[in-house]
């Protein structure tokens, strides 16, 4: 199988051009290629597929093989791949996802895409503002936001000090979230900057999460903690999030990078 390794601020996926490649069992392929010791090494698998209603379609799979409805860092890389590899010839494109069609506005340098702004749509509050929860032996408060996939935002004083490998699974699998949840741990730095770490459903701690950063920014805006345009600082870099309250749409801007191309033998899976 031919693939391209790409990353958006350290949230890395194996991308497969499904206009040319066929994958019979993407869940198993995702588990196989994601393995950082026996596979390629990634947070999951993303397929760039033909679409009947948009310029292309993104299917994303977490490291554990589960399919996600939306991926903020992934969709920026899908846009870059589609433009740089000639699937589209416009810097303004629509990408079909399981969470609906997303519009991408891309910026290029020397004919290659370097940054992408994604219209993430209208976020939805999925909890009380905030809601109490007993998790990991503590009484905490979270704010639930859906941007096509589910997020729970927790405000903490010491983001760097959290042992996410230890506590993450309790947050992900809490009974309040029957479909599991992506969990964001957030510190407000000032009215224009927040720091965030994420424990992703299906992939564990990743260096960044675009939908998570969007949800965290929107929660912070709803709580009146920050302005309507904010920089979210993650382990792998920064994302700009802007909420246009008039239309309700939220926009995420960040880089997209191609790391290398390769070919992998999948016969071990057959
Ligand atoms: N890393 C992604 C989110 C991937 C999907 C998520 N783990 C889920 O299962 O909902 C991002 O950048 O948004």
Walkthrough of the structure:
The protein is α+β, with helices and mostly antiparallel strands and 270 residues long. Helices cover 16% and strands 45% of the residues. It has helices at 26-34, 72-84, 164-172, 210-222; strands at residues 2-8, 11-17, 44-49, 56-62, 67-68, 92-97, 100-109, 112-119, 124-125, 131-135, 138-146, 150-155, 182-190, 193-200, 204-206, 229-234, 237-243, 250-255, 257-263. It has a 19-stranded mixed sheet that branches. The relative contact order is 0.18. The model has no long low-confidence stretch (mean pLDDT 98). Bound molecules: ligand LBFN2T5F. The site of the ligand N[C@@H](CCC[C@H](N)C(=O)O)C(=O)O has 18 residues, from helix 2 and helix 4. It holds the Pfam family DAP_epimerase. Its main location: cytoplasm.
- Percent of residues in helical segments? 10-25%
Give the N-terminus to C-terminus distance in angstroms: 13 Å
Described by strand count, sense and barrel closure, the largest sheet is: 19 strands, mixed
Quote the beta fraction. Answer: 35-45%
Mean pLDDT: 98
Q: How many individual helices?
A: 4
Element pattern in H and E: EEHEEEHEEEEEEEHEEEHEEEE
Instruction: State Rg.
Output: 18 Å
Distinct ligands: ligand LBFN2T5F
DSSP summary, beta strand count: 19
* Low-pLDDT stretches: none
Global outline: globular
Going by helix content, strand content and strand pairing, the class is alpha+beta
Short précis:
With 270 residues, this protein is of the alpha+beta class.
